[in-house]
TrEMBL record:
Organism lineage string: Bacteria, Bacillati, Actinomycetota, Actinomycetes, Micromonosporales
Domain of life: Bacteria
Domain Glycogen debranching enzyme C-terminal: 279-641
UniProt GO MF annotations: 4-alpha-glucanotransferase activity; amylo-alpha-1,6-glucosidase activity
A Pfam family the protein falls into: GDE_C
Domain Glycogen debranching enzyme bacterial and archaeal type N-terminal: residue ranges: 20-227
Single GO biological process annotation from the record: glycogen catabolic process
Alphabetical list of InterPro entries matching this protein: 6-hairpin_glycosidase_sf, 6hp_glycosidase-like_sf, AGL/Gdb1, GDE_C, Glycogen_debranch_N
Organism (species): Micromonospora inaquosa
SUPFAM superfamilies recorded: Six-hairpin glycosidases (SSF48208)
Protein name, as recorded: Amylo-alpha-1,6-glucosidase
C-alpha cells in the first residue's frame, strides 16, 4: 500500500492535521473515526460509533480517550485535543506529535516529550462493535499515563446537552458500563462524572449545522509505563457486554492481519491499487441481519441501492469478493416490486424512488456473470430481471415507461427527482430532469443487451429484447446528439414556462457528465468521437473527476459550501463527483484517447482528505477542495475499477 505518514509540520499545524481524517470500520457499518491531529471536527467523530438496525442508524458512544503523561519530574503533559465554543483549542496535544502513520489501514500516533516517546495504535475487532486503543512507551520513562474517557450515547446525526439527562455510568470490575449500551475496560479505572460543556465541531459549523455539544467525563484509566515496550490499553465494546473481547494488542494484530488478507485477495498490481482495495473493504458490511450490504459513505450515509450497484464491480469483482457479491445480488433481487429495485433509504424505510437504480442492478448482474462466468446466478435471476423489462415497457411508478413511439425510457412525476441528480431544497427538486435523461436511456439500452445475452446463455429466445434494444438504440443515435457536438442531457423535458404535464416540451442541451454513459457502458449506444470527448473534457474535467455542470452555465455553482440549502442547491450544479471519472476513462479509452495523466490528481488525493480513500465530492472551481463524505463507496469503487483495467 502507499506509504501514508505525516511529520511534525503537518501534525502540529491545526488546519492541516484537522482536515485529514482517518476511518477504521468494524465491518458492520460502525466505525472509529477522527483526524490526524486528534481534534474532533465532526459530530460523527468518535472511537466507538455503533451501528443500529441499519448502518445509517448509528449511535456515538466513546468519544475520546485523552492521554496525559506524568513525567519523572512530576510535570503533567496533556496530549489530547479539543476545540471549544469559546474558540479556544485546549489541550493542544497535536503540537507534540512527531509522526502520524496509517499502517495496514490502522492509525498510529507518536508523541515526543523530550526523551519520552509514546505511541498510540487503534483498531476495531472485525465483525464486532469493539475498539482497542493501545499506548506503548517507545523511549524514555518511567512515566504514568492517564486516559480520560469522554462519553455520550446519542444518535450520530445529533448532539447531547447538559440540560438533558445525565448519562448513566455503572462501575464494573475493570471499568464501567455507559447507558447500558457499551462497556469500557482498562487498568486503574477511577470514576469522575461531570459535563464538559461546549465542545465545538468546526466541520459542522462549516456545513451550517449546530456545531456544539456537551460530553460526559465518565472517568479515567491509568497505568505505569516503566520501560520501552510497556503498554496501557483500553477496550470499548457494544452488544454482548458480558462477552469480553480479546486483549487489545491481540485485537490490533487481528485487524492488521485481516487487512493484509483483504489486500492480498484483491491481487493488486501496485501500491495505489492495494490502498484502494483496503479502502473498498470499509464499505462492504454485514448488517445486524447478517446480510451483505454496502455503506454508501462515511460518516453519515447508510445503504442506497443506486450507490451499491454503481459500486458493485469495483467493490466486489475487482477485490476477489464475488461470492459475497453473489449473495448481495440475490438479496437485492428479492426486493423487486413492479419492476423497480428497492432503495433502502437512510430513514430505514424501503422505498421505490429511483429510475436508474434498477437499471444499474441489471448492469451489475450482467457484469457479475461476464466477469465470473457464474451463469447459474444469471439463470436464477433471469425471471426476476424479465419482470423489470416488462414493467418498464408497460409502465410503472412515477411515470417510468417506454415511449412506444421511439423505444426510449421516459420518467417523472410532480415533485420527484428520480435520477442520481436527486437533491432537493425545502422539498423541491433542484434538477428533476423529467423526460428522457441521457444516462437513463444509455443504461436502458445497456440493460436490454445484457439481459438478452443472459437469456441466450440460458438457451432461451431473446428476440423481443433485441427488438426493444434495436429501436431504442436507433432513436438514441438519432435524437440525443446536439448541434453543439455533445449529447442532450434530457429529451422531451417540460419547457420551463410549463408545469409538468404541460403542452410544451423541449430538449435540454446543458453540458453535463451524464452523457458519458452513452460511450462508457459495455453495450453503449454510441461510438465515441474524440473531438466530442475532448470538448466535454475541456468543459467538465478536473483533477478529481468531472464537474456536474459546465462553468459557463447560468445555474453553475462553483463552491459546494454553506448550510444544507446552499449545499443541496449546488450538489449537482457544478460540484465535482469523483465517481464519474470511471465513465470518463471508459469513454476516453473507447475513443482511443490516452488517460495516463487522468489519475495523477485523484491518486494524490488519497493523502489529503479521507486518508487512504476518495471523497464524495469537490468544489467545481479550482482548487477543487474536497467536500461531502471523506470516504465514499462509488468514488473508491470506480477509481479501483478503471485503474485495474489499465494494468
Amino acid at each position: 500500500m502507499i506509504d501514508i505518514h505525516f511529520g511534525p509540520q503537518i501534525c502540529g499545524d491545526l488546519t492541516s492535521a484537522a482536515s485529514r481524517e482517518w476511518l477504521v470500520p468494524d465491518g458492520l457499518g460502525g466505525y472509529a473515526m477522527g483526524t490526524v491531529g486528534g481534534l474532533r471536527t465532526r459530530r460523527y467523530h468518535g472511537l466507538l460509533v455503533v451501528p443500529g438496525e441499519t448502518p445509517a442508524s448509528r449511535q456515538v458512544g466513546l468519544v475520546s480517550l485523552d492521554p496525559a503523561v506524568t513525567l519523572p519530574s512530576g510535570a503533567r503533559v496533556r496530549l489530547g485535543a479539543h476545540e471549544w465554543a469559546s474558540g479556544d483549542v485546549d489541550p493542544r496535544g497535536f503540537e507534540l506529535l512527531e509522526r502520524f502513520d496509517l499502517v495496514d489501514g490502522l492509525p498510529r500516533w507518536r508523541w515526543r516529550i523530550g526523551a519520552v516517546v509514546i505511541e498510540r495504535e487503534l483498531a476495531m475487532l472485525p465483525g464486532r462493535s469493539c475498539v482497542a486503543v493501545v499506548h506503548r512507551l517507545v523511549a524514555g520513562g518511567p512515566v504514568r499515563l492517564e486516559l480520560s474517557a469522554a462519553c455520550t450515547w446519542r444518535d450520530a446525526h445529533g448532539e447531547r446537552r447538559a440540560d438533558g439527562p445525565i448519562p448513566q455510568v455503572e462501575a464494573v470490575a475493570d471499568g464501567a458500563v455507559v447507558e447500558g449500551a457499551y462497556r469500557l475496560a482498562g487498568p486503574g479505572w477511577a470514576p469522575e462524572g461531570q459535563w464538559w460543556l461546549g465542545v465545538h465541531h468546526r466541520e459542522e459549523a462549516n456545513r451550517g449545522l449546530h456545531p456544539d455539544e456537551d460530553l460526559w467525563y465518565a472517568g479515567r484509566f491509568s497505568g505505569e509505563l516503566e520501560r520501552p515496550g510497556d503498554t496501557v490499553s483500553v477496550r470499548a465494546w457494544a452488544g454482548r457486554l458480558d462477552e469480553e473481547p480479546p486483549p487489545a494488542t491481540e485485537i490490533v494484530a487481528t485487524a492488521r492481519r485481516r487487512n493484509r488478507q483483504v489486500v492480498a485477495a484483491a491481487k493488486p498490481t501496485d501500491d495505489v491499487a492495494a490502498t484502494l482495495a483496503l479502502a473498498a473493504d470499509a464499505f462492504v458490511v454485514r448488517t445486524n441481519h447478517a446480510a451483505v450490504d454496502v455503506v454508501a459513505g462515511y460518516p453519515w450515509f447508510g445503504a442506497w441501492s443506486r450507490d451499491t450497484m454503481i459500486s458493485y464491480e469495483g467493490l466486489f469483482l475487482c477485490t476477489g469478493r464475488a461470492d459475497e457479491g453473489r449473495e448481495l445480488l440475490r438479496a437485492y433481487a428479492a426486493t423487486l416490486s413492479e419492476g423497480m429495485l428497492a432503495n433502502t433509504a437512510d430513514t430505514g424505510r424501503v422505498e421505490y424512488n429511483t429510475v436508474d437504480g434498477t437499471l444499474w442492478f441489471l448492469h451489475a448482474v450482467s457484469r457479475h456473470v461476464s466477469v465470473t462466468g457464474d451463469t447459474d446466478l444469471g439463470d436464477e435471476l433471469l425471471p426476476a430481471l424479465r419482470t423489470v423489462i416488462d414493467a418498464h415497457v408497460a409502465g410503472t411508478r412515477y411515470g417510468i415507461r417506454v415511449d412506444p413511439t421511439d423505444g426510449l425510457l421516459t420518467q417523472g412525476a410532480a415533485g420527484t427527482a428520480l435520477t442520481w441528480m436527486d437533491a432537493r431544497v425545502y422539498g423541491v427538486p433542484v434538477t428533476p430532469r423529467t423526460g428522457k435523461p441521457v444516462e437513463v436511456n444509455a443504461l436502458w439500452i445497456n440493460g436490454l443487451a445484457g439481459l438478452a445475452e443472459l437469456t441466450e446463455l440460458a438457451g432461451q429466445s431473446a428476440d423481443e429484447l433485441w427488438r426493444h434494444h434495436g429501436q431504442a438504440t436507433a432513436s438514441f443515435r438519432e435524437r440525443f446528439p446536439t448541434p453543439t457536438g455533445w449529447l442532450h442531457d434530457v429529451l422531451d423535458a417540460p419547457a420551463p414556462a410549463y408545469p409538468l404535464g404541460g403542452a410544451a416540451l423541449h430538449d435540454d442541451d446543458a453540458l453535463r457528465p451524464n452523457q458519458l454513459l452513452a460511450w462508457s457502458l459495455p453495450y453503449a449506444p454510441m461510438e465515441p468521437d474524440e473531438a466530442t470527448l475532448r470538448r466535454i473534457a475541456d468543459g467538465l474535467l478536473t483533477p478529481l473527476g468531472p464537474r456536474s455542470l459546465v462553468p459557463d452555465a447560468t445555474e453553475f455553482v462553483g463552491r459546494h459550501r454553506g448550510g444544507p440549502a446552499d449545499r443541496d442547491g449546488g450538489y449537482h450544479q457544478g460540484t465535482v463527483w469523483p465517481w464519474l471519472l470511471g465513465p470518463y476513462v471508459d469513454a476516453a479509452r473507447r475513443g482511443k484517447m490516452s488517460v495516463d495523466d487522468v489519475f495523477v490528481g485523484i491518486e494524490a488525493h488519497l493523502m489529503e482528505y479521507g486518508i487512504g480513500s476518495v471523497s464524495e465530492t469537490a468544489d467545481g472551481l479550482a482548487p477543487h477542495t474536497a467536500t461531502g463524505c471523506p470516504f465514499q463507496a462509488w468514488s473508491v469503487a470506480e477509481l479501483l475499477r478503471v485503474r485495474r483495467k489499465s494494468q
